[in-house]
Amino acid sequence: MGRAPVTGRAPATEQATDQQVHVAVDLIVLTLRGGRLNVLLVRREDEPFRDAWALPGGFVQLDEDLEDAAYRVLADEASLGDFTVHLEQVRTFGAPDRDPRGRVVSVAFMALGADLPDPQRGEDVADARWWPVDDLAAIDLAFDHDVVLDSAVERARAKLEYTTLAVTFLPPEFTISQLRGVYESVWGTTLDAGNFHRKATRTEGFLVELDRHAAPTGGRPARLYSAGPGTALIPPLLRSGQ
Predict the structure, then answer these.
(1) Second label for 225, Cα 20 to 30 Å away, from 19, 23, 88, 174?
(2) How far apart are CA 4 and CA 143, in angstroms?
(3) Under CATH, domain 6-146 is a member of which superfamily?
(4) Distance (Å) of CA 76 to CA 98, 117, 122, 163
(5) pLDDT class of 79 with cuts at 50, 70, 90
(6) Helix, strand, coil distribution of the chain in percent, nearest 5
(7) Is residue 28 a contact partner of residue 186, using CB atoms and an 8 Å limit?
């Protein structure tokens, strides 16, 4: 977060101070690795929180909008280049004391992708790596990034219930078993295979059944599917299994 910030001041009619407000973006990059939900973290090279793990982030430049800033951080600090991700804004974090350097308002973006590669260390970070989300309970993240991460993970878990977001974790062609694995990994639960198959294949617009099968793995070859045109799941696939 060492780039030139966007700043603003309160109107003169208000009780303004000389304190500047800085605008930043933070990225919660999520993918599945080894059947577990992973998030990309970077080790900070500078103060504050030197050597602490944090979400990739940076200040918004004067000549870019928020989404452009998020893609820049994804390419530079997260070092994931042009890999295709689903990017969406999660929420804004603006607690007055969230950054010891001053008043920083951060817009959090969630980036989801299938089989994202090992990151290369960016110029402004000491290290970058994937971390299983379930392994972070004992890790003290910089700033308020534990709160930011929790918000994004819960957003992803909730959206799997009522949108087709799960397919963003998968290659263009996949089996129902692989799709179920996404739900189980993100939700941290086990689903009944038969019940899930019925719900997924009967939900209009969710999947397109292909005329080919996956490579055999010892049993009956599994049918392949691709993402359908729909964006909403009606009825939803609930975590409760109902």
Answers:
(1) 88
(2) 19
(3) Nucleoside Triphosphate Pyrophosphohydrolase (3.90.79.10)
(4) 24, 14, 6, 30
(5) confident
(6) 25, 30, 45
(7) no
**Whole-angstrom distance, CA of residue 188 vs CA of residue 183:** 8
The CATH code for residues 161-227 is 1.10.10.10
Encode pLDDT of 141-179 as tens digits.
Answer: 999 999 999 999 999 999 999 999 999 999 999 999 999
- Cα angle: 171, vertex 70, 164; to 5 degrees: 35
Token pair belonging to 146: 């534990």
Q: Cα(203)–Cα(92) distance, rounded to whole angstroms?
A: 33
Tokens standing for 128?
């970058």
What residue segments make up the domains of the chain, in order of their start? 6-146, 161-227
